[in-house]
């Protein structure tokens, strides 16, 4: 099989991916405040200049990592939803496994790390603006997903889609905080209750 040429664009993409992997490791070990770009560069095997050629600063790197994690989560959620035409509340084990697998992939420190950055952003206008924009984009993605599922299953709901998506994002921010404080408290039965609550509350059969 012929090897695909390592073009400058592919090389840049590989460098960025290595840096994000290294950032995930360094942030998890040292926290947002304790981590430095020098440490990320060293963990990735690059110079600090390579970091700055891809990210403006530590905030930008963290937000890129946040976006990469979210993209993987949304892709996995789409795949799980599209695997069957059965309504979500009828497939609780699939969604509980999905959430638990994603948590395992990110590591137990991720919930704490996100809260650390959120508190930092609340005190720094530029970071707060960027995180608010990220959350707004997240809400929009979830809203589109809700619309797609309502159309696919022929369901309607009185609650506005964007409002519903905002509730979901806020709910999971709260769940992540709970899990960061008490991992055992967010167990399979709790997650099943959450998914059932969301599925029944957000979708209803047309009159």
Characterization of this structure:
- It is a single chain.
- This protein folds into two domains: 1-55, Homeodomain-like (Arc Repressor Mutant, subunit A), CATH 1.10.10.60; 57-202, Tetracycline Repressor, domain 2, CATH 1.10.357.
- 77% of the residues lie in helices and 0% in strands.
- 19% of the residues are buried.
- It has 207 residues and is an all-alpha fold.
- The model has no long low-confidence stretch (mean pLDDT 83).
Topology, element by element:
Layout: H1 8-34, H2 37-44, H3 48-52, H4 58-82, H5 92-106, H6 109-122, H7 125-153, H8 161-181, H9 188-202
Helix pairs in contact: 1-2, 1-4, 1-6, 4-5, 4-7, 5-9, 6-7, 6-8, 7-8
């Amino acid at each position: 099989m012929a090897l695909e040429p390592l073009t400058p664009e592919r090389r840049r993409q590989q460098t960025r991916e290595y840096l994000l992997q290294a950032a995930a490791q360094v942030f998890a070990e040292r926290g947002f405040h304790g981590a430095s770009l020098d440490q990320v560069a060293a963990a990735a095997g690059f110079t600090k200049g390579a970091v700055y050629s891809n990210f403006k600063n530590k905030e930008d790197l963290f937000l890129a990592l946040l976006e990469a994690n979210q993209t993987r989560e949304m892709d996995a959620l789409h795949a799980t939803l599209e695997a069957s035409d059965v309504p979500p509340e009828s497939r609780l084990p699939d969604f509980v496994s999905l959430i638990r697998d994603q948590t395992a992939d990110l590591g137990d420190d991720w919930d704490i790390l996100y809260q650390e950055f959120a508190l930092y952003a609340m005190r720094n206008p530029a970071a707060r603006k960027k995180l608010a924009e990220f959350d707004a984009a997240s809400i929009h993605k979830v809203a589109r997903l809700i619309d797609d599922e309502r159309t696919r299953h022929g369901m309607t709901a009185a609650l506005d889609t964007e409002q519903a998506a905002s509730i979901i994002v806020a709910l999971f921010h709260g769940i992540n905080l709970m899990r960061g404080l008490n991992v055992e408290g967010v167990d399979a039965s709790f997650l099943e209750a959450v998914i059932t609550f969301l599925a029944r509350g957000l979708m209803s059969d047309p009159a």
